[in-house]
Amino acid sequence: MKWNWQLANWPQFIYDPLLLTDLEKKFLQGVGGAFAVLKHLEDVKKRQFIVDILCSEGINSAEIEGEVLLRESLQSSIKRHFGLSIDNKKIPSKEEKVGDLMWKIYDTYDQVLTHEMLYEWHKLLMNNESKISDIGKYRTHKEPMQIISGRYDKQTLYFEAPPSKSVYKEMNRFIKWFNDSRNENSILIRAAIAHVYFESIHPFEDGNGRLGRALVEKSLSQSLKKPTLIAVSQVITRRKKEYYSALGECNKTLNINKWVKFFAEVIVEAQEESLRLVNFLMAKSQLMNNLIGKINRRQEKVLLRMFAEGPMGFSG
Fold first, then answer.
1. I need a surface site. Which of 60, 107, 235, 271 has the fewest CB within 10 A?
2. Distance between terminal CA atoms of the chain?
3. Region 251-272: what's the mean pLDDT?
4. Which pTM value belongs to this model?
5. Hey, which CATH number is domain 4-149+156-287, 1.10.630.10, 1.10.10.60, 1.10.3290.10, 1.10.3630.10?
6. Helical (H) or strand (E) element with 151
């Protein structure tokens, strides 16, 4: 039994370049619509929208791995970078560092990918996690890097990544591909390859899933030549079982057509949600402006409470 990285043509992934033609058009149309609406938002509201998107991505990417982050604290951490006012509550270290990471991914999207950039991301993500030996560097342990599930006496091996001694060489090749491909592949195909390629190497002792999804954001932003304002992990959280199943199908093959199609659909779905959110914020802004002087403070608070629920609406 050979894993994908043990196959003769690794890492030459096989896919149909025309597979995503329609999805690509749909994605680009949606992106254009979202950025067009954003232009009409006041600066503070625009920054708040970006904070909400980054916060949602951070919360959901952690949730996929079974980790819970405090939304209010993470929002405060991200707000600091955008010059938005926050209260004086102390931000827990975990949320503070994840907020710093989300900002860096957003702010440095156009910079070339390097080993050092990934090390820094890993440091912020792990934040002195006591159970992790290698923080801010690739894994060095001699034991196989295996993805296993099930009871101790009845475990299933889903995947085994390249040995630690091969990781730096593999990451050299991955980083070169990532930087060389920013103007070559379709936007959605490049993002899908970046994720499955990185996860196949599994270069860190922990945090590979979250960093792999961060690379998706970087890939999309570079292709669009502006920061991506979509929360891909929010959709993945809802489709978690499908996500892991689609990734798992790539473990022993270099043919990634099914994965590329699935992941492109996830990205387009996430983009559509962002468009709904920005349209919602625009409508909210217009309504509140029209109601100035026409409602009392109590009525305003009720409206703002309803709006806080977002496009999905208010109940209870």
1. 107
2. 54
3. 97
4. 0.89
5. 1.10.3290.10
6. strand 146-151
